[in-house]
Amino acid sequence: MPITAVLGPTNTGKTHLAIERMCGHSSGMIGFPLRLLAREVYDRVAAIKGAKNVALITGEEKILPEGARWLLCTAEAMPVKRDVAFVAIDEAQLAADPERGHVFTDRMLRARGREETMILGSDAIAPIVRALLPEAEIVRRPRFSTLSYAGAKKLSRLPQRSAIVAFSAEQVYAAAEMLRRARGGAAVVMGALSPRTRNAQVAMYQAGEVDYLVATDAIGMGLNMNLGHVAFAGLTKFDGKRQRRLTSAEMAQIAGRAGRHQRDGTFGTLAGGDVFEPHEIEAIENHRFRKLDFVHWRDGEPDLSSVGALIASLEARPDRPELRAAPEAVDLTVLRRLAGEARGDAAKLWAACQLPDFRRVGAEHHALLVGKLFRHLSEGSGHIPADWFAAQLARLDQTTGDVDALGARIADARTWAYIAHRGDWLADPAHWAARSEELEEKLSEALHRKLTERFVDRRTAVLMREIGGDPALFDVTVAEDGAVSVEDEPIGRIDGFAFTVDPDARHGDRKRLLAAAERRLPRERARRAAALVESTDDAFALTTDPVGVRWAGHPVARLTPGRGLTDPRVRLAPTLQTLAPVDREAVATRIEAWVAASLARHLRPLLAMTATAGDLFTPPRVRALLSPLAAAGGMIARNAVDAQLGALDPADRRALRKTGLTIGTLDVFDTPLLKPAPLGWIAALGAARTGTAMPVLPAPGVSVMESGAPIPGFRTVGRKQVRIDLVEKIVRALHDARAARAAFTPDATLAISMGIDAESFAAILRATGFRAQPEGTWTWSNRPRPPSPRPVPRNAAFSALERWSPGD
């Protein structure tokens, strides 16, 4: 049976050749370094040969149709003694790995196909093949494409279709998070991911949903993706014992993922991190590395007659210089710890000790679980109790938590999947294998969602792909509710005429989102402008902060000072300034028309008062009163216009009262203007004129409230603010109850019914000329109003004497 060693760098088609050769035989088996890779090739071969003829055999996943003839396995799970026509071992240079190398060495030495055996690997393994397998034919394959060094690049400057390779979960997460901010995110691939999670992440990358991939060095083991550039986040890794620099061969294995088939690839580092040495660059570009001078070995068929004999076999040293005893692995360390529990069954104990430490908890803690398993297997029926096994799965059956928590649960679930796939450890292994697979799938789907949520911003990814392209090609849509999307990714919403970036968007994305939207929103704003112009009055409303106008619930204009209180200017909101001039003018005209109609409807008395005050045919003494009254919104404190009132004759007063004007004891006002709607407009016009905030008005129906900031139409008395017409009503009732200037006891019933307390009632009495008497009664005294100052002619010769006082 011929043995062929097909050696060469990455992207030489070695694995593809092995698959072709295997499919050309009546049966075959390939051992891979990763479960992920075994699963990937299983899917390919199953598509060629039919699923019923193909098996997948890994520690924690087995698909074994009866009569399957082609087997895809991890190296550790290969059934070495199975009779098949073809056998291949992939990535054979891993025989030099301190942790797993002895497995690959054993498979090279013992795994044989009946008709053909193939060893795949890098050229570094060539001397070992010549020494251990002198009968093997060595075939070298050149790389299909060129791999060249591209230097250090900032993460934000990496080209699309790049992979960033890191050597710890923390580095992976940090790089993926930075890519999310800068480029919309990345797919994440780590060796510990389940095939389902890994496939979902890779599919997202391959479909172009993201343009970047962040991975551990597991990417170097044959995972084929459309990569153009590989950037190293670092050049050192922890190998289980110490932090060390990668070898040139390890660097090349990873860098070689860039450029597939005939397309050239590049590699480099992230700016600010480790840098390649010149000799490393030369070695990677030219595929020249130091050859291996030894590989690790451990007896692949140890003596199981006793625990002592077993340990001695595993500690045995090889008798060839090309072989070196493998460092003590976790399984041997656990075996030593549990040697006293063997009970004469070394084979069963060794099988339990070979449970991989998927959880990475270390030999000491791992031995606790292995010991418990062995005790279950050594007692009673010799099976693990179903209820205990079910409890372990139930403990893990939850999809809450972050990426790390879900990753830890999947690692734990792999342990129980491995156990379930041991055919003799459970009474119903098929049932528990299915349950374990369901759990892993459930956790894997949750982890994929979490990875995507944490490390992918689809919206930014879409925008970044469009940068540099023709803005007209953007597919921007506006939904009926105002939601704005680019390429079906929501980027914000347009409310009225204002576009607002999605609140979930990061600060760094806002400029891009605004730019994308503003290129295509003018047409939508023009459509809305036309709708505003055609709207009926009920689509508009007054806003209070700031004072302005709403249309369809959205602010469209502010009111600013005009020629007078009732003639404000309408200033369109900044979001409407982007409209075409003709649309802008039409919108402004429509809003001004609504404001004018609203003032005519709610402030008719004030408009009439303003017109009368400005009419030259109105008697000057009446105009003198109406001008400040109209400027104050149709209500003013009486002491502010005492002089003007004193100038009126009885006929003037009667004429004014006929118009609805009340000349009260404390205030002069037009009663209809004290209703809620007119009062709201008066407050708004006053705030717009002074540029101040509009006061908070009482709710409709409220006429008495606690004192606070001044409110149009209300007077502060004591601890209350009372509407001025009600104060006047109380004062008139008091005057009706008194007898001339005689002492009397005021009746507070009316005030109390209005919600006015005793202190505020007393304040009204004092403000209107009533004086409290010692015995508790009140008298009224007609307070002399302050005399109007006698005007002094400015050109009078002795006018200065009017301002002189003794002592000056």
Describe the structure.
By secondary structure, the chain is α/β, with parallel strands linked by helices. It folds into six domains: 3-140, 3-Layer(aba) Sandwich (Rossmann fold), CATH 3.40.50.300; 147-286, P-loop containing nucleotide triphosphate hydrolases (Rossmann fold, 3-Layer(aba) Sandwich); 329-455, no CATH class; 458-520, no CATH class; 531-602, no CATH class; 703-808, no CATH class. It is 39% helix and 18% strand. It contains 27 helices and 34 strands. The strands form nine sheets. It has an eight-stranded mixed sheet with strand order 4-3-5-2-6-7-1-8, with helices on both faces. A hairpin with a 5-residue loop joins strand 33 (770-772) and strand 34. The longest helix has 27 residues, at 429-455. It is elongated and about 135 Å long. The relative contact order is 0.06. The model is unreliable at 467-473 and 784-808 (pLDDT under 50).
